[in-house]
Design brief:
The complex is a heterodimer. By secondary structure, chain A is mainly β. Chain A has 1 helix and 11 strands; from the N terminus they run βββββββββαββ. Chain B contains no helices and 11 strands. Classes of the chains: A mainly beta, B mainly beta.
Chain lengths: 116, 113
């Protein structure tokens, strides 16, 4: 069964500190993995996408990594800010060309709270 | 540029009542989606529309119907609401380029009593 598991479920850190969120998946055949940020009361917004051939990608203070061999991804947040408080959702896409039909599998998210 | 707009933001229904959730996008996207989000679960696909005039069932379609009114609008209808349909509903759209992201609305929080 195609699954996406995220850890930790929730996390509290002090402003200015770094943190790393994990995403493990069993989705196959794999096309890409995307991280979304969801603020409270809002819809998810894409942060970054990782394709099969990419190992790391940065978007400002966010850095995503992908190990396609172990089927793991991480999202590292540097110098956290209060505005980083949100749910971070990992989404894996099945490969279209091998008949996956572009199906998306969503993780349950990591709830991050940044405190003063 | 509003992106994806959903109405209403909040709704309370009694069991058995019906309602329609509205969604419109202004990005000229062909693909549109309806998801529900429940605590402790990932977003689950209810229905999607790959283009104007077509709709297909997703993972959890029972109890719902959809209408792709035109390229901009995609509505979700609950004919006879049940408490199990208490959830937050998100509409999304996506461009045609490969690896395009989903663009979500801000959701409708529905409570069925």
């Amino acid at each position: 069964k195609n699954q996406v598991e995220q850890s930790p479920q929730s996390l509290i850190i002090l402003e200015g500190k770094n943190c790393t969120l994990q995403c493990n998946y069993t989705v196959s055949p794999f096309s890409n993995l995307r991280w979304y940020k969801q603020d409270t009361g809002r819809g998810p917004v894409s942060l970054t996408i990782m394709t099969f051939s990419e190992n790391t990608k940065s978007n400002g203070r966010y850095t995503a990594t992908l190990d396609a061999d172990t089927k793991q991804s991480s999202l590292h947040i540097t110098a956290s800010q209060l505005s980083d408080s949100a749910s971070y959702i990992c989404v894996v896409t099945l490969d279209i060309l091998t008949g996956g039909g572009n199906k998306l599998t969503f993780g349950t998210g990591t709830q991050l709270k940044v405190e003063l | 540029n509003a992106g994806v707009t959903q109405t209403p933001k909040f709704q309370v229904l009694k069991t058995g009542q019906s309602m329609t959730l509205q969604c419109a996008q202004d990005m000229n996207h062909n693909s549109m989606y309806w998801y529900r989000q429940d605590p402790g679960m990932g977003l689950r696909l209810i229905y999607y529309s790959a283009s104007e005039g077509t709709t297909d069932k997703g993972e959890v379609p029972n109890g719902y119907n959809v209408s792709r009114l035109n390229k901009r609008e995609f509505s979700l209808r609950l004919e006879s609401a049940a408490p199990s349909q208490t959830s937050v509903y998100f509409c999304a759209s996506r461009g045609d380029r490969i690896n395009s992201p989903l663009h979500f609305g801000n959701g409708t929080r529905l409570t069925v009593t």
